[in-house]
Design goal:
- The complex is a heterodimer of chains A (1010) and B (150).
- Chain A contains 24 helices and 52 strands.
- Chain A is α/β, with parallel strands linked by helices and 1010 residues long.
- A five-stranded parallel sheet of chain A has the order 5-2-1-13-24. A five-stranded parallel sheet of chain A has the order 15-22-16-17-18.
- In chain A, helix 5 runs parallel beside helix 6 (267-281), helix 10 (468-476) packs parallel to helix 14 (556-575) and helix 18 runs parallel beside helix 19.
- Chain A is globular, with a radius of gyration of 31 Å.
- The relative contact order of chain A is 0.09.
- By secondary structure, chain B is of the alpha/beta class.
- The radius of gyration of chain B is 15 Å and the shape is globular.
- The termini of chain B are far apart.
- The model of chain B is unreliable at 1-13 (pLDDT under 50).
- The chains are: A alpha/beta (1010), B alpha/beta (150).
- At the A-B interface, strand 4, helix 2, helix 13, helix 14 and helix 23 of A face helix 1, helix 2, strand 2, helix 3 and helix 4 of B.
Chain lengths: 1010, 150
């Protein structure tokens, strides 16, 4: 290892979805991570969400695996309930002083059982449920909290001592003090998230006065199964089901009166989502959304919006609500608004305020302590070409702290920031991470099962209902069991030592723990038996708490019987357990980047700086891609200058080999082991692939006389004319959504509105007298881009809204253009005679996407963009491991967003390339060659393309299936489909599950015989 | 005597104690079942959960074996459509269960003895509701044909 003054550790400040992603990426690529969170548990706002748009995924379902992974990762240290006090030093070597508030509970002793909170007499508003439920003075933020450690709220605790008495683990420590300590890190990532706009600052809506006016996050909690009414939508005033619900948009956004002129980017979509979910909860509910522009600008968002309108019947009213008043008798709410110029009044049963996103509460403190700049709106300042960098070198930013944004962009930035943080300290990679050493594994092959059973009381959580001694005695009678005991807490540290001792003493070769859920505790016990020299897969668990004592609290006899059954089932499976090997796959540490635009170049440079050999393949004769065609950026930055800078950096990087005028002809292999043949015949071996093939501007042949009249231009063509000074005219008309949000392209192209503002403003700057019209459906200048809309309007650009049913009509009157458009609001027809008609035409995928997709076995959307593994949480990954995507190939987006994604692919790729070998899953499918007849039924069941029909090993004339363990995720879908019984899932073999079934039903049979 | 009365009460109505096997996928439904526990939602105690990684792992053989061994009802629980941790496993489950329902009917089983339900990690209450309802259904149907019922 090279001598370096850099520190191989990163501090991530903020434990929401952003911080989680950064932490996991870095910890998986050779860095030690300190994840600092101000609340007692991580999870942030996403943990409060019921569902996420546009897939209506359950937020907790998709987030929990990441929470648990972060909580367990041996290279991530969680420091919760803590703030940053001082940051000294410089990039590569910071000293951070952290102040951690007292939990008043010893985290090493607390088992998270919750007995203390059950008995705590103090009730207070539950912040997690936005005050709509109560919690105790000793509490965890939410049921799935990580770390699962209770803490005492010092403000609320009355010091009665009941929790201390109740805690059988003796974890309560009233006199625990705040801790202040220093940590050395090389880089810092700040991701403290955002604060909801305080709806009381808009008194005209009556929040805090009228009970039936709630904020969107309160409504989100109401929709949640863990919320105040267990998922029922009810009026806070009387518990009635509200029939009419009004969503009021832009509360605290796009509003100079409250100081927030920016758009909060996510409210339109979350309101559409909440309206859909509310409708799903109760068919009688009629939601109406009052909005100014419906900003559904993300990937497949417009389709979601269309479904809300057409399938769910959600009503959309374009109007800004002036005021809300209450009928004191019914507690109904009266909304005043104007519809097509006419004043209206309408009564609703419930009003939801779509509150905007404001800077994190500690934004100013963080900026002061860490010495980075905030922007005018109080968010962290970043640049177009440096979207994840703060003004202080070595300190990076991600998520809603730099601008209001949705989860996918946040996750991409989180990975992007991790890439930058890693590059800073590449020379120290691997210096601070630890690898746990275990004793040599005992060979238990062929041995009779010698099972040890440990039954947990979990304080009184199990023992208070289930007769634990009886279960333990019963376990002793079962075949294969040579030892059984009961513990107060089987998960406690001393119990681990006991288990290890008993494995030794009784020569146990299988261990069964009957306690809580394997989802949280299996890894702990697996680790224990590994320390005792047993293979981790020789462990089985019976869940007699969460799925027994807790749900049958008033039926101790039945619960005890069930616990015995569950233990018998676990033992039945345990007898058949076998050691599994985590196979290792060799990794070729080179990367292939396809596409030499800003996205591909950014990825290539960053990878190279992390020591990776990169092949950058570009089909054109020069690098730069679409950025060469933009000419202007709304921020005033020069795109061409950036292209040249990147090109220079690529050329200077000895780790990057550029292949111009070249395409990939064939790609074979899997993560760590790809082999690509280029169009020039060269062969490259590499461990990962990054797809950055970009997109292109749609050429709307024939539409609005494009291609027929020389003065009809696309936006990019027009910008080029502007740049060259060729646009000479007095009158300009821009038409939005050309080839977007219609027909086969139902989604928004995201960038055209802002691009139009830039061009229109440029025209006005050059000639303030010019007539400039923008014909549009919704203006979608989201985030801080709203200011460009405002600037254009202030400079005299005129905006005319048209209905998508009545698109503008363009005619050529003797070479002169005539545009007729009907204004949506007034119904009046306008006739314009522009010198230039500029079509803001949509973004389309590149054609080569269709060739690459089958080569890499990756899916595409119906519009032809690549489809990522998960729209929310895996925005730059494919389900196929080792293949990543970024930029326009993923969907329309701005330069800064493409750069974030490019950096994100680097971070994701480094989780593979930083290792020489990868460990495959232990629980994978395997095939019995003697039974497989190569029918191929299993092949399409595999979502990960891990199955392939090959020539049979014994008889090449026959066929068989081959399982690629490098790709297998161990779901077992293929096993369930195999008609020959040739496929099996390790750890969940047919015999093992059948043994559980038989064991479960054994008792009832015996009873019947009697 | 008194313990017998209590026993009878715990054995459910009609003195029939149903045997229900529940297959839960690891990522959504099993987590939903755990959440029901964490939330202390009470439900009838006659079901036994078998955890599989994905609901698509539920081999038709498992269902048939459980019926053969005397299960009165079988519930397969997976992630909601589009929520599947393994992308699309639950869609295969849906098809398999539809076919299995037809098959068990031919063996003289009421198709309602086999149920498929989507339960997310956040739906502890749905888990409780499903178990309660399904137990009621099985109580109404009585013992399975294997156990002398109809």
């Amino acid at each position: 290892m090279a001598v370096t003054d850099k520190v191989g550790a990163v501090m991530v400040v903020g434990g929401g979805i952003s911080g989680l992603q950064s932490a996991l990426d870095l910890a998986d690529s050779g860095y030690k991570v300190y994840l600092v969170e101000k609340l007692p548990s991580i999870g942030g706002v996403m943990a409060q969400l019921d569902k996420t748009f546009p897939t209506n995924d359950c937020a907790m379902c998709i987030m929990a695996p990441k929470l648990v992974a972060a909580g367990r990762h041996h290279n991530i240290q969680l420091i919760t309930n803590a703030d940053i006090a001082i940051v000294d030093g410089q990039a590569g070597n910071f000293t951070v002083t952290v102040r951690q508030r007292a939990f008043r509970v010893d985290p090493t002793k607390c088992t998270g059982c919750g007995s203390c909170a059950q008995k705590c007499p103090v009730e207070t508003a539950d912040e997690y449920n936005e005050g709509s439920k109560v919690r105790k003075a000793i509490f965890v933020r939410y049921p799935q909290a990580v770390p699962l450690v209770y803490s005492i709220d010092p403000e609320k605790c009355i010091g009665c001592g009941i929790c201390s008495e109740e805690c059988k683990a003796k974890a309560v420590e009233y006199d625990q003090k705040e801790k202040v300590f220093e940590i050395q890190v090389g880089s810092i990532i700040v991701s403290p998230g955002f604060e909801e706009f305080n709806a009381r600052l808009k008194p005209e809506y009556g929040y805090g006065v009228y009970k039936n006016v709630v904020t969107s996050i309160e409504f989100e909690r109401m929709l949640s199964a863990t919320g105040p009414y267990f998922g029922a939508v009810l009026r806070p005033s009387d518990g009635d089901i509200p029939e009419k619900i009004a969503f009021i948009q832009c509360v605290g956004s796009r509003d100079e009166h409250c100081g927030n002129e920016y758009c909060s980017s996510v409210c339109c979509m979350y309101s559409v989502k909440e309206a859909i979910i509310a409708k799903e909860h109760g068919g009688s509910i009629k939601p109406s959304i009052f909005y100014m522009d419906l900003r559904a600008f993300g990937k497949e968002f417009d389709e979601y919006y269309n479904r809300a309108k057409n399938e769910y019947g959600i009503r959309f009213v374009r109007s800004r609500i002036a005021a809300v008043s209450e009928d004191p008798k019914t507690r109904n709410l009266i909304l005043k608004y104007t519809d097509n110029g006419e004043p209206k009044e309408e009564v609703f049963n419930l009003v939801v305020l779509a509150v905007g996103l404001t800077p994190a509460a500690d934004a100013e403190t963080l900026s002061r302590v860490m010495k980075f700049r905030l922007n005018d709106d109080g968010f962290c300042q970043t640049g177009v070409f440096t979207p994840v960098e703060t003004s202080r070198p070595g300190v990076f930013v991600s998520g809603a702290f730099s601008s209001p944004k949705d989860i996918p962009m946040t996750v991409a930035e989180a990975s992007g920031a991790a890439a930058k943080a890693g590059t800073e300290i590449t020379s120290a990679r691997g210096t601070l991470v630890t690898k746990k050493e275990y004793p040599k594994e005992k060979d238990v092959a062929g041995q009779e099962a010698r099972i040890g059973v440990f039954v947990c009381h979990c304080g009184i959580n199990i023992g208070g209902v289930v007769n634990v001694p009886e279960v333990m005695e019963y376990a002793k009678t079962l075949p294969g069991v040579v030892y059984a005991e009961q513990n107060l807490y089987t998960c406690s540290q001393d119990a681990q030592e006991r288990i290890k001792g008993k494995v030794e003493e009784h020569k146990l070769n299988r261990v069964v723990v009957a306690s809580c859920t394997p989802r949280t505790h299996e890894p702990l016990f697996q680790n224990t038996i590994k320390e005792a020299g047993l293979n981790a897969y020789l462990f089985e668990m019976a869940n007699i708490r969460d799925q027994c004592s807790w749900i049958h609290m008033h039926e101790p006899k039945a619960a005890t019987k069930k616990a015995k059954d569950l233990v018998r089932m676990a033992i039945a499976k345990s007898r058949l357990l076998e050691p599994l090997e985590n196979l290792t796959i060799k990794v070729n540490q080179q990367a292939l980047v396809i596409g030499g635009g800003v996205t591909g170049m950014t990825a290539a440079i960053e990878l190279a700086r992390q020591g990776v050999r990169v092949h950058l393949v570009e089909k054109e004769k020069e690098l730069g891609g679409n950025l060469r065609k933009l000419h202007y950026l709304p921020s005033g930055d020069d795109p061409m200058e950036h292209v040249k800078r990147l090109e220079g950096e690529v050329r200077a990087e000895k780790n990057v080999t550029v292949h111009l005028g070249t395409t990939a002809k064939n790609i074979e292999g899997y993560v760590g082991n790809f082999k690509t043949t280029l169009s020039d015949g060269k062969e490259i071996e590499h461990g990962v692939v990054i797809l950055a093939i970009g997109g292109q501007e749609h050429k709307p042949e024939g539409e609005y006389l494009y291609g027929k009249n020389k003065d009809v231009k696309t936006l990019l063509e027009f910008k080029e004319m502007l740049k060259k000074g060729e646009a000479k005219g007095k009158s300009y008309v821009f038409v939005q959504c050309v080839g977007s949000r219609e027909g086969d392209h139902p989604n928004c192209s995201r960038v055209c509105c802002t691009g139009t503002m830039t061009a229109a403003t440029k025209v006005k700057d050059k000639d303030p007298q010019a007539d400039v019209y923008v014909l549009f459906r919704d203006i979608r200048t989201y985030g801080f881009r709203e200011k460009y809309y405002k600037e254009a309007a202030q400079k005299g650009v005129r905006f005319v809204r048209f209905d998508d049913e009545r698109k503008p009509v363009v005619e050529d009157k003797g070479g002169k253009l005539e545009v007729k458009v009907t204004e949506e609001d007034t119904g009046k027809q306008l006739v314009l005679r522009p010198d230039y008609l500029v079509l803001a035409s949509g973004t389309r995928p590149q054609h080569d996407a269709e060739e690459l997709a089958p080569m890499l076995k990756v899916p595409m959307t119906k519009e032809g963009f690549f489809l990522e593994a998960h729209m929310k949480l895996r925005p730059v990954d494919f389900a196929t491991e080792g293949v990543y995507l970024a930029g326009l190939a993923h969907g329309p987006k701005f330069v800064d967003e493409s750069i974030s994604q490019a950096l994100a692919t680097v971070s994701r790729a480094m989780t593979v390339l930083s290792k020489t070998t990868l460990e495959a899953e232990g629980i994978v499918a395997s095939v019995d060659e003697s039974l497989c007849d190569g029918c191929g039924i299993c092949v399409p069941t595999c979502e990960y393309k891990a199955l392939e029909i090959v020539a049979h090993k014994d008889d090449p004339k026959k066929k068989m299936v081959d399982v690629n363990v490098g790709l297998c995720k161990g779901c077992g879908a293929c096993v369930g489909a195999c008609p020959a019984g040739a496929l099996t899932q390790k750890g969940f073999r047919d015999e093992q599950i059948l043994a559980m079934i038989d064991a479960a039903l054994e008792q009832s049979k015996k009873q019947e015989v009697k | 005597m008194s313990s017998d009365v209590k026993g009878a009460h715990e054995a459910g109505e009609h003195g029939f104690e149903p045997k229900i096997i529940v297959f839960c996928c690891n990522w959504c439904s099993y987590a939903g079942a755990d959440l029901a526990g964490v939330s202390r939602l009470q439900m009838p105690p006659y079901f036994r959960v078998i955890r599989v990684m994905c609901s698509a792992r539920v081999d038709p053989e498992f269902v048939l074996r459980a019926f053969k061994k005397g299960a009165d009802g079988i519930l397969v629980a997976g992630c909601h459509p589009a929520d599947c941790h393994y992308i699309g496993g639950n869609y295969r489950t849906r098809r398999r269960i539809a076919l299995l329902k037809m098959l068990i009917q031919q063996f003289g089983y009421d198709p309602d003895r086999l149920r498929l339900e989507w339960i997310s990690a956040g739906e502890g209450e749905k888990f409780q509701k499903t178990i309660t309802e399904f137990t009621e259904t099985i109580n109404e149907l009585g013992p399975s044909p294997m156990r002398g019922g109809g």
